[in-house]
Amino acid sequence: MAGNLVLTRPVGSNAQLEAALRQAGIRTFEAPLIEIQATNSGLPIEEPLAAVIFTSQNAVEHAPEVIAWLRKASETVVFAVGAATKQKLADEQIFALAPIQPGSEFLLQLEELRSVKGKTITMVTGRGGRRLLETELAERGARVRRYECYQRLLLDPPGLEPRLQHGEFDHVLVTSVDVLTALMSCLGQGLYSNVTLVVTAARIAEAASKKGFKRLIQARGAGVAEVLEAVTGAGPVGEMLEQE
Q: Among 5-19, 21-35, 41-55, 215-229, which is the least confidently predicted range?
């Protein structure tokens, strides 16, 4: 069981998780490693949206015009990249299909996205990032429109490295490869072996391992329940994945 955890999500995104962790007796320190900034890229809705994919919770938060349109579009099929994004959409009274495991690879396995030839699919996402969804759906014959409604800015929060250096904190939550990149820019490589990363997807664990991090705990997802389950050691998802 982890006794502490550095919360690295953007400001305003940590309150629920922080409360749950503290109730479980886990100390927290908030050190946002990325800042989410709206791009103000309006989406011209020139035709009915047949299918819409939200690639993150941030995509839900920063596309109010799409959310407003979907509330009135009962025929549109909505997809979420994982359970946390699905819940975010549910909070907006929008039902979405999502894979059991979060991630683009698992989303692409859904039956509803296997036969998409000739269909128009709108991706609500951030600037940059992976192109796996877009590339694979296009190969399956879909016309993919990309709506980049936010961008990520990497941060270097003061006080993070000293706390990790002195051992006050040794567990860090990493919810994306961008967060991993920001963390690496803040730390000397000598600290990699002293820090345990709590990651929320297999691809993040793989990227961290390749960069030299040895101690990883993989949660089943990015939601409060999944992260809490992982850091408290409840079940196999909380087991340490020691890297060779």
A: 41-55
Give the E-state strand segments of 75-203 in sequence order.
77-80, 120-126, 143-154, 171-174, 196-199
Identify whether the C-beta of residue 220 lies closer than 8 Å to the C-beta of residue 228. no
The C-alpha atoms of residue 124 and residue 122 are separated, in whole angstroms, by 6
Q: What letters, b where the CB count within 10 A reaches 16 and e where it falls short, cover 102-122?
A: bbbebbeeeeebeebeebebb
Closest to 36 measured CA to CA, from 221, 164, 171, 182: 182
For CA atoms 64, 180, 136, 222, give the dihedral sign.
negative
Confidence of residue 234 (pLDDT cuts 50, 70, 90): low
CATH architecture for the domain at 4-33+155-242: 3-Layer(aba) Sandwich (3.40)
- Give the whole-angstrom CA distance, residue 209 versus residue 23: 31
Q: Please give the structure tokens belonging to residue 94.
A: 């929008």
Q: What does pTM read for this prediction?
A: 0.78
Please say whether the beta carbons of 34 and 182 come within 8 A.
Answer: yes
- Map out the domains of the chain as residue ranges: 4-33+155-242, 39-152
What's the mean pLDDT when you consider all of the chain? Answer: 88
**Alpha-carbon distance values, 102 to 25, 107, 146, 170, 201 (Å):** 27, 7, 20, 25, 7
Q: Which amino acid is at 29?
A: F
**Ramachandran bin of 43, using left for φ above 0, alpha for ψ from -120 to 50, beta for the remaining angles:** beta
39-152 CATH, one of 3.30.70.270, 2.40.10.350, 3.40.50.300, 3.40.50.10090: 3.40.50.10090
